[in-house]
Amino acid sequence: MNIIVSHIQTHPLIKAREAGQFAMEFSPDLGLSTMTVHLSPDGVDFSTGERLPWHAVEEVNANENNCFVVEGDALRKVVAFSEYTNRVYSLMPTRSAPTMLISGIPMHRIKDTDPYRDTLEKIKAARPVGEVLDTATGLGYTAIEAAKTAHHVTTIELDPVALDIAQDNPWSRALFDNPKITQCIGDSYDVIETLDDTYFTRIIHDPPMYNLAPHLYSSDFYMELYRVLRGSGRMFHYIGNPESKSGRSVTRGVIQRLLAVGFSQVKHYAQAFGVVAFK
Ligand SMILES: C[S@@+](CC[C@H](N)C(=O)[O-])C[C@H]1O[C@@H](n2cnc3c(N)ncnc32)[C@H](O)[C@@H]1O
Question: Closest ligand 1 atom, CA of 145?
């Protein structure tokens, strides 16, 4: 895996240089592990052969919204434009797992929490066991966590460019390595029609915000979610901050439509900014 850095890793490098240090512990994978790096007047030397010149370290340090892959002695910003959705995808660092920005909008909660804790709340709400359907892959965090307790996870992503971003993210590695996870590319709205009745024990529905994908909040789609869910199955549906005006009104509509298509019970699950629905 490539070395990937953000301002969170470069800030201590600059401090160490100012303090006259010649070596320090450094994370080459956005906080997952550490290695010793050597500091010279020219830059930072990695035991794996890469060298980051100080001007590159300064460049990373000045950019709080992006992560950078180290390629030889150059940097590649983790960002891509999708011609399919006309959106820009990038990886934004946090002190924990990074989030993905789609046209500047974070795909995980980062205010008063972080993407990893956000994921754990979603997982607590979904209680993954058996066959799990994850309707929106993103960086794969919900799929990866669900696969720890489930038999198998099927995860669907609309835009292959989102998966290109995930390929660069060390926190997404298991999405590509774990044989318990099957990835599908397509619009969940269409892909779900190909899935068998009552096949899934659990569903994690973690769509982009309502304005970005209203069809994933529609009665038609909810009917399909209901169809593929096993009797006594459970679904977690992320919606957004229940305290916000828009979150409140979207939540009201979601609950009404879920009940209308047949879910027997729909409960607010505020810790995870969503609802849990039971078949
Ligand atoms: C909130 S993120 C999902 C985060 C993900 N659960 C995780 O743990 O990293 C939403 C994702 O859904 C994808 N998406 C948007 N519309 C979609 C659709 N119609 N079908 C499937 N995926 C979609 C976006 O590209 C984005 O990657």
Answer: 8
Nearest to 208 by CA among 127, 110, 88, 108: 108
Residue 157 near ligand 1, beta carbon < 6 Å: yes
Atom of ligand 1 nearest to the CA of 172: 9
Residue 213 CB less than 6 A away from ligand 1: yes
List the end-to-end C-alpha distance of the chain, in Å, as a whole number: 42
CB neighbours of residue 21 within 10 Å: 13
| Spacing, Cα 159 to ligand 1 middle (Å) | 8
Please state, in angstroms and rounded to a whole number, the distance separating the CA atoms of residues 219 and 214: 10
240 lines ligand 1 (CB under 6 A): no
Domain ranges of the chain: 3-77, 109-278
Q: Which fold has domain 109-278?
A: Rossmann fold (3.40.50)
User: Mutation test of ligand 1: which of 157, 181, 237 has the most ligand atoms closer than 8 Å to its C-beta?
Assistant: 157
Q: How confident is the model at residue 1 (pLDDT cuts 50, 70, 90)?
A: confident
169-192: pLDDT as tens digits: 999 999 999 999 999 999 999 999
**φ, ψ for residue 70, nearest 5 deg:** -90, 120
Residue 187 CA, ligand 1 centroid: distance in Å: 9
Backbone angles phi, psi at 96, to 5 degrees: -120, -135
Query: Cβ neighbours of residue 27 under 8 Å, at least 6 residues apart?
Result: 9, 33, 34, 35
> Cβ(248)–Cβ(213) under 8 Å?
no
- Does the pTM surpass 0.85? The reply is yes
Taking CA atoms only, the protein residue closest to ligand 1 atom 13 is: 136
Helix (H/G/I), strand (E/B), else coil: 91 = strand
